[in-house]
Design brief:
The chain is an all-alpha fold. Helix content is 68%, strand content 0%. The chain folds into three domains: 88 residues, Alpha Horseshoe (Serine Threonine Protein Phosphatase 5, Tetratricopeptide repeat); 85 residues, Alpha Horseshoe (Serine Threonine Protein Phosphatase 5, Tetratricopeptide repeat), CATH 1.25.40; 106 residues, Tetratricopeptide repeat domain (Serine Threonine Protein Phosphatase 5, Tetratricopeptide repeat).
Length: 348
């Protein structure tokens, strides 16, 4: 007689285990009542039990972490959408939230570099670029690669390229003739050094040579359209030259790069007020206030815009708020008071 080895009969017309014709109907696997009872008590190896427990633990942990993964993923995609709309303040918050949950998220880090740059935080962008040195950019994201290359190039143009000249200038006081002469001669010898040109534009603005400051900063913008420091130098020069319409257009160009730039919004407000575009100025500065409601400079410009829109109570309220702050700037407060009491006209 053949010894039974507990292997079910694969092609049996009865019980798949003992071939008894008395199998229990209604089950997908044919077994008689006795075999079904025996198999239900069949011992399971410990390895299988522990493997099942391990899988269960992993599944439970995954279920609990799933909302975090989902939230981070949604936040990252929201950040990318905001960046596409040039809303970099909001985008930066999304990318930072993603990195808080997943510090190794390459996409969030690389996009945060771009957001940091357009939010005028060059130090953060530079630091992140160093950290991201070994990270691989997705091959299908050509726009990200192109923008990172541009940002990297512009960051390299933020410092004077000749380190020897930079050290020599650092040893000379900026408000001296020696400093200006050294910087001027270097720019003549190295017209490609945009950081030096921007610094020279600032130097000439301090000397009230606004025409030359405007010319130098315009050259820099032409060479590097995303070098934001040069925009602010030229905007300052155009303001002092009273070329307000040009300044308005340049401020709008700058704001188009980052529609949430606090500094650009305040600058645009300034030119709108000087061109008697008072209603538009109030709308513009309220955008900045929504992003940075406690910023002293934003509060200053908000009070000014309210004054020219005949909202004197709100101007006075903001003035009082600024005056009561621990870090109150008495000079700025006195100037604001003169503006909103019409002792001095902001628009002249």
């Amino acid at each position: 007689m053949e010894e039974y080895n507990d292997i079910p009969y694969q092609h049996s017309n009865g019980c798949s285990r003992c071939n008894s014709p008395e199998y229990e109907p209604g089950y997908p696997f044919r077994l008689c009542k006795a075999c079904r009872k025996k198999l239900s008590r069949y011992p399971v190896k410990k390895e299988i039990i522990w493997a099942a427990i391990g899988i269960g633990v992993i599944l439970i942990v995954s279920i609990f972490r799933l909302p975090g993964y989902f939230k981070a993923g949604v936040g990252y995609m929201k950040g990318k959408k905001l960046a596409e709309e040039h809303k970099y303040v909001s985008a930066e918050k999304c990318f930072k939230a993603t990195l808080k949950e997943f510090p190794d998220h390459t996409g969030a880090m690389l996009n945060l570099i771009i957001a940091s740059y357009f939010n005028e935080n060059e130090a953060q962008a530079d630091s992140l670029l160093a950290l991201a040195g070994g990270k691989t950019i997705p091959s299908d994201d050509e726009d990200l690669q192109a923008m990172l290359n541009i940002i990297n190039e512009h960051l390299s143009q933020s410092d004077i390229q000749d380190t020897l000249v930079a050290r020599m200038l650092a040893d000379i006081a900026e408000d001296t003739a020696a400093y200006r002469a050294k910087l001027d001669s270097y720019v003549v010898a190295a017209p490609y050094d945009l950081a030096a040109k921007t610094a020279l534009a600032y130097t000439y603005a301090e000397l009230k040579n606004y025409t030359l400051a405007d010319s130098l900063s315009a050259q820099v913008i032409h060479e590097a359209p995303l070098l934001r420091a040069a925009y602010y130098e030229r905007l300052s020069a155009l303001r002092d030259l009273k070329r307000y319409k040009e300044g308005l257009q340049l401020a709008e160009d700058l704001l188009s790069q980052n529609t949430e730039s606090i500094q650009a919004l305040m600058t645009l407000t300034s030119f709108q007020l000087r061109l008697n575009m008072d209603k538009q100025a109030l709308i513009t500065i309220k955008q900045a206030a929504a992003l940075a409601p406690e910023d002293n400079s934003v509060l200053f410009m908000t009070a000014l815009a309210c004054h020219y829109n005949h909202q004197q109570n709100e101007s006075d309220r903001i003035l009082t708020k600024l005056r009561n702050r621990p870090d109150a700037d008495t000079g700025s407060i006195a100037l604001l008071q003169n503006f909103i009491t019409d002792k001095v006209s902001y628009k002249n």
